[in-house]
Structures
1.
Amino acid sequence: IFSRQVRSTAAQQMKTATPETHKPTSFTSSETVTTSPTGSDDSLVDPPGYIAPDQQDMMLTDITSAMLHSNECSITIGRGKEYLSPADSIQLPWPATGIIFGYNKRLMISLPCRRTRPGRGYGVLNVFFLVDTGSPCSYLSREAMEALINKPDCNLPEQLQVVIQNESFPMHFYMSPLGTQEHPGKFHDVNVLGMDFLIHNKLSMMVDTPISRFQLLQKDLQSIYANYPDED
């Protein structure tokens, strides 16, 4: 009798334990792994310090569409060429020269820009850019995107691939954040060349404050390292 009771008790314990032993692993919603909004295939999480392009915050409210279309900007930044006017060529060598503009000392430069896919008939335009080494990303304003696409009433993408200065380095530009009617984006009218553009095109920048000019230029590695003799 005692033996039958022991076997019965053991069987009940095994029966009770089975569901817990084979219970599948589950995750709460907070543990669910999602893909990175950066679009990177190399990692499922954003790197430390990552800020999404539409969350970048640059106080550039002094640069407006009306200002960029002004005669002053056409003469100083565009060197006689109006903002978003047809450009002569997209096959220009570096360096390119810009100016230190206005009370806030903005680094402004006019560069020929065209949407990629040359066979589609997209025009080359003179786009006035602000160079900002504090921005990791590069941006085109809504107005500039509309002019480059040149298709009225079309839906604008969040990114637009363009070539600048020459055909060597096509690159995606984000749309400058528009914000809302109550709180407009702080640089929604501004076209920004950020660090991604400088790195992508292997550019150096030389700023000559005494004459309020700067240059974007490509240099060979030997001459670059010659500027840093004390570096390993």
2.
Amino acid sequence: MHLYTKLSLVTFGTFLSSVFVLNNCKRLEGYQFPVYLTSFCPKDEIEWNKRSSAINCSSSNGYLCLPNENFTELLEFCYTEPKIWILKGYCLYLVKHASKVNTYSCRHFKYGCHNFSYLSTRSFENPACISIGYGCFLAESSCKRTPAPINLSNTKDEWVWIVALVCAFSLIFIVFSIPFIKRFCHKKTDDCSNDFHHEYDEIDSNIDESEDDKMDPTSKGINHSPMYQMESKFAEFLRKVKSDAQRFSSSHI
């Protein structure tokens, strides 16, 4: 049982880790290079370098984390250039059909618009350009908390993830249940076998008593009547049934 438990936990842990990794870093289609959906961008240099290594960015293909062109999702990717110079008063976003970054003026932001230029490797120092919601930058005065359009693709992916988790929990439940089911069935088989032998022992005892009564010459004498012969044949039949039943029981225990 301990072996079942260890195997189950390892399998379940591996499955969950793979599911969460795929859910938090999902590759998107339609771009000229690998682009991944992420729930947040790095908040410091350590996280920036860690995410850069995670998606295999290099010195010639620098890591970027930017909004998509609809300002509804954050994307992380290794760009075609090592670094980008971000000009004063502008934020960046990724255009899907061209797979190029474009600029967006932040001069009307209520807060967070940088009044200096900087390299893209320091983007985490200016969070206003990567803080989005409701299809807009949160720092915009016109950004209202209205529901964003439903993304059917994301909804489908969420359902796939939910179904995968349900299947995983079902699998782990079945694996954990196997030892208990085996133990219950074995106990049930033993009980049935004991009842079976007890029943046929009683039949055997009754047959022996019946034969003793019929063969006792002092009480009834030797009886050759048709009724006696029929009873003898029936007793012989019962003995045969008992013998077959015992062989059947022995082969299934």
3.
Amino acid sequence: MCQACSNYQEVEDKSSMNKYCRAVLTYYEYSFAAAQFFLSDLKDDTGASFWCQPETLRNIADGSFSDSFITKKEESSTFSYETTDKAIESCDMISTCVTHNTPVLGGADVVAYHFLQDESAPAVHGRPEFTALLDGYEFWFASKHNLDIFLARPKSFAPQLGGFCALGLSGSDPMLLREPSPKSLDRVPVDVNVWHLEEGKLYLFRGAGAKRIFFDTLHAPYVNSEKNWDTLRIAAECLPSDEAPLFNTNCLYLSDD
């Protein structure tokens, strides 16, 4: 990581930069996941031009990283679509599953999943004092540390398929007589305690049985789920762009299986 920073052409003061780069390593040494996302950003010119700026490294070294990054985030269009109040209200009318009056996944900390020992561990609930906004949706976190990690790469930690059941969206759910529509997202709820990480991406399921079916019987299961979710999301016709997300805030329950 330090070598990547040192070689980056926009950094003029190599000696002071290396000092701050060491501080960055110290900052991240207890968080392998955070370090990995840091490294992946350095492979991209846009990410490297931010992370390798002496000002950024200095802010991390003196502990003011969070405030400086939030300021940087607010000045950038990279992490947020133009989600208007009218668009939010329109989406809220489509389904109670995606209303903006409660946090995504009922407040489950989407970063904490990446640090749980195995997939039998339950979700970690976030707290309202550690809140991030993404496209009008609130995400809650259990700590400021997890909040900072999310702010650095929100799209990497946001749940896949909007936080709805991966099996239900695959088209192969034996429990569904009809495919879900934007107005019937309650057919594909999730138990936030039944989850899976695939290449750093978070997927959720309505229960352990649905998770078993998804992996045991479906060929290339993610492909259909992601394709169907994109089609369904765009069909909602309430979003400011075809790339903007919908997130599950209310269609949650604790399964028995």
